[in-house]
Structure formats: C-alpha cells, structure tokens
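Batch manifest, entry 17 of 40.
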Amino acid sequence: MKIQEDTIQQSYSNALKRKKDNSQSSCCPPQTQSQSCCPSSTTSELIEPISFGCMYLKSILMDYIEQGMTVIDLGSGAGHDLMIAAELVGPNGKAIGVDFTDDMIKEASENAQKNNLSNVTLVKANIRDIPLPDNSADVIISNCVINLALDKTQVFKEVFRLLKQGGIMIDADVIATEPLRREIKENPSLWCGCIGGALTKAEHEKILNEIGFTNVIIKLGEKDDVQFNVPELAIESGLILAQKPDE
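Output type: structure tokens
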C-alpha cells in the first residue's frame, strides 16, 4: 500500500487536537500508553509547549546553540524545542520553525507570544522544500519528524543547503535497529505512528555521507533522554549529528 503524504499531514494535525483534549497521550497513533512519545518533563522558566518528540533535547541543544545564532527547527510542531532554541540564541539570534500544518503553525506562534519570544519566525512548508535561502542556519534541529518524510534524502539535502559552512544538524529520531519488514514499511498507521518510515543507522550514514556531510555520529539515546521506543518492532530513539564541511 502506498503511503500518502496527506495522510501523514492529517495524522500529525490530529495529534495536537488529541493532546490538547487529553484524550490520548501519544503523538502518533496507534500506540499503547507505554509507548507515548509526548510527555514533557523538562523544567524551565519557559511555558513549555506540548512535545511531540522522541527525545528530550534541551541539554543537547545547550551544548551546540549559542547566543546570536540562527537555528531552524524542522517539523517544529507546537514549538517545544523551538522555544528552547529561541531562548538559547537570545534577542540577537533567530529561531525559525518550519511545519506543514496550519494548526501547528498557529499553536507555535501563540506559544512564542506567551513566552515573549520576538525572535521566533514560523514558516509553513514541507521540510523537503523550504523557502529559505542557502546558508541560512548555524544549527538545524529536528525531533521525531524526518522519519515521517517520504523522501528523506531530499530532506537531508535541504538541511545541507540551508546550513552555513561548518553548521551542525541535530536530528533526534527513531532508528531501526534492523531493516524493517515490508509489511511494516507499507502500513500507513505504522508510518504515521513514527515507525514505518524509520531508517537504520547504516541507511542514515549512507545518505548523509553521499550528500557531503562530515563528522556523522549516530547513537541510540540514553535512557533518561528517550521519550519513545518500540523495541518489539526494532525501533529505538536515537541522535543523529552531522556537519556541513567548513570549506
């Protein structure tokens, strides 16, 4: 069965409605309560938006993001990681969220206003084709989003295009610990559930190296950082770091 992009988009938009209604804690149906990837336990002065990620990224972002930087968040959702990035770059920096659903753009915009973050910009776009200029960002982040893309190679090419020389990609995502069976890859519910589109470590490395990234590091998430794992389907949360060469 062919996976349809509009099915993914609608599922993603519906996740926000369910979470705000507290009718389901997971971000990507169908899952059991033990597989929820949405709870947020980080503490901050920020009013933290709903998280739809698969890892807690705050401590990692603090290691890479500095005052005055420009950060792009791919699939920024309600703005959880985007708000953290905006706080880290400060008033002289920029935090740009990219999402392809009106509901998420509206929610993130409202959350930026609640947090008095004037350095946040929201862009409605598909992450495989982003209307921003080349060499725009010092850091590009994403959290449990690229696995949902039908053309992941094109998404990573966009990341490479948008990064400045020497820029860093920080992608928290689900990683398949073994090649997924065809029936998993072709199941729309499992794809929308952040499972069917997962790549293995080797597949990530191949794509990123062919595009031209250097210093590629892929590792499974530490227990305290992970929000979402489905070991019975060979799915683990992990962190993918890659750098655009500083030529």
